[in-house]
Amino acid sequence: MADGTARKRRAGGRAGNAARRGGLVIEQMAWNPPINIDRPVEPLTEEGVAAIHLGAMEILEDIGIAILNPEALEIFREAGARIEGDVVRLGRDFIMEMVAKAPSQFTLTPRNAERQITVGGQTLLFGNVSSPPNYWDMEIGKKVPGTREMCRNLLKLTQYFNCIHFAGGYPVEPVDVHASVRHLDVLYDKLTLTDKVMHAYSLGKERVEDVMEMVRIAGGLSHEEFDATPRMYTNINSTSPLKHDYPMLDGWMRLARRGQGLVVTPFTLAGAMAPVTMAGAVAQSLAEGLIAIALAQYINPGCPCVIGTFTSNVDMKSGAPAFGTPEYMRATQMTGQLARFYGLPIRSSGVCAANVPDGQAMWETSNSLWAAVQSGSNMVYHAAGWLEGGLIASPEKFIMDCEILQQIQRYMDPSLVATGPDEIALDAIRAVGNDGHFFGTQHTQDRYTTAFYQPFLSDWKNFEGWEAAGAIWTPERAHHLFKQIIAEFEAPPMDEAIREELAAFVARRKEEGGAPTDF
């Protein structure tokens, strides 16, 4: 903004009230990022943690990581790394010194400060599906390339559901928008259709700088206010095995310098891009992640970093990636132990290999989501809407996943494990005694509306009741809800002057050509 001062955001009105209620189509749980009250599952012994840590350190010291970004290479050279060609080797003392500078917990504050989230500690955050190039819904009935309209509809679901706490990458790639300006259109849609924390793809200078500027404008912030606290984040993937590419490290370093959120998630598929053993795959993944965190901390000590895990396995018969497997679950839990060893927040994912929102989709996703819970994950990517190993986004799957996410949120409600006199309920037990029931007791009457989780999608009628109501299977019920939510969706409020400034920035950057592409 010309005067460098922050504008006040307009709130209230019909749209504001709808946003606070969470919409009228379903009765959903309130915005309340859950606190994980369970002890994490820790399959590794103390010796096991030490063995994987030492494995990661030896990879960094002796084998090395290829760094394909010349600027990052020079920074590592300045830091005293041993460099041969583009392979960087770093001593464990340096790595641990840098990692120790990263905070164990930080906040991300979007344009609506009421949607601020805490990353780290025991907070459990869920994000939407990100980056599939294809789309499937029951009305189309086949896999098709993503469009901007499909992307906008999935963003509306991202905003609508209170159990989705941050907006990840594009929920489906709108391939009908040219790649040079795609980030401008999608970020404009994300910032106007949602008020949750934003993500930037680290794919070159222009995309990262444009997204940071758009987030700043949307928040009505001066440059100083934007830099003063994390407002957004990026996620980068190493090119496994043992390599970081040019564009992702470029964006990583740009956001590090401005103190924004940084998530590094090696995508290590055991048996293909990593050793077939889970311990070996986790050790490699940690080495690839820790070197990026060390780079960020050397550039800007104390900048917020998250270590991610995306360690799964391939089908050794076909080579296809598999998700939600026992191996995936254990790798996630093991990485959680190591993340706590390093004092870093952890990111994991809610994923599956299924092609449509069927039983396989839900058991694999449920496995991966509960592995995230058990591991003590703080950010769970792809928590709603993911199919075909990340190649398809589906609104029906999105809504079905949100039922699981709400159940996890309810599972973490401390009231379920409260043990006060009211919870032990001896007076009610005494009143009912050996002959009677609890339906009519005052204890039940005082609590029946909130005592148990109430689903918005599950159907608890018996077979005859379900059949009489049309015999509608779960994905079809989800499809009907999707159509209702989109039809009744109201975007969160935004000051009109800010909206105009945002649109003007997009128009100017399009005139300038947007971001360079390889085609």
From TrEMBL:
Top-level lineage group: Bacteria
GO biological process: methylation
Name of the molecule in the record: Methyltransferase
Keyword terms, alphabetized: Methyltransferase, Transferase
Record keyword Nucleotide-binding present: no
Taxon lineage: Bacteria, Pseudomonadati, Pseudomonadota, Alphaproteobacteria, Rhodobacterales
Signal sequence residues: none
Naturally occurring in which organism (per UniProt): Sedimentitalea todarodis
Pfam families reported in the protein's UniProt record: MTTB
EC number annotated for this UniProt entry: 2.1.1.-
Keyword Translocase annotated: no
InterPro entries the UniProt entry points to: MttB-like_sf, MTTB_MeTrfase
Family indicated by similarity: Belongs to the trimethylamine methyltransferase family.
Gene Ontology terms, MF aspect: methyltransferase activity
